[in-house]
């Protein structure tokens, strides 16, 4: 486990170095693009492996290309110092816990189970403080407080439960609810950069994000991506934004333990749809 952590830390240091170089005028994007993408997807695979072993380390870097990062820093990060701080914040909730664990393991012997618990606890302490530093364009959203949205509902789910998501989506569509469900939007999504598009769909363009929580949900790349965006947007809302539905007893890192949820095994599709309608009606009355 320590070797895996050291490898991840090394890759993070290297990718941050590349981002700093190109964003502070010390490197050309085209010269570093291939190396950046190799590191970017390697880090994603490593984080996925950790999630499959019950360790959630949040992936806050949404820029699969340095050109995507270029667009972001040109729009919102005016000084070299702001860019350095932002790059640091992207990987802080991963790098800090790893550093703490590696420091602890160097001073005493830690068995694998203890190491996993220690890493998870350090990560949990770091994530809330760090995420508030990330994605300033999302934090300053002008659409967050508006009374109309492109979508009333966006569905987030693991592929293993598409049948449930599809049943909910069809019932909501029959009732005229504006919702984002990927199978309904294939032509609209065709050709789009989904990483950029989903930052709006699971963020400022949607009234509520309905999450189907299952054991598969936290270990999938796209659901992790969607939930990270939604969790960040939730901080901008004056009222609830993420509406969790439990398929099983899986706990989702980053979702407060006191958040109320629906139990799908008790309410079924009909109960979910009914409660969504009530939630939307109350929202419309209060807005």
TrEMBL record:
Domain called TIR: residue spans: 149-280
Highest classification ranks of the organism: Bacteria, Candidatus Woeseibacteriota
SMART domains: TIR (SM00255)
Pfam families xref list: TIR_2 (PF13676)
InterPro entries, per the entry: TIR_dom, Toll_tir_struct_dom_sf
Any one GO biological process: signal transduction
Organism: Candidatus Woesebacteria bacterium RBG_16_34_12
Annotated protein name in UniProt: TIR domain-containing protein
PROSITE patterns xrefs: TIR (PS50104)
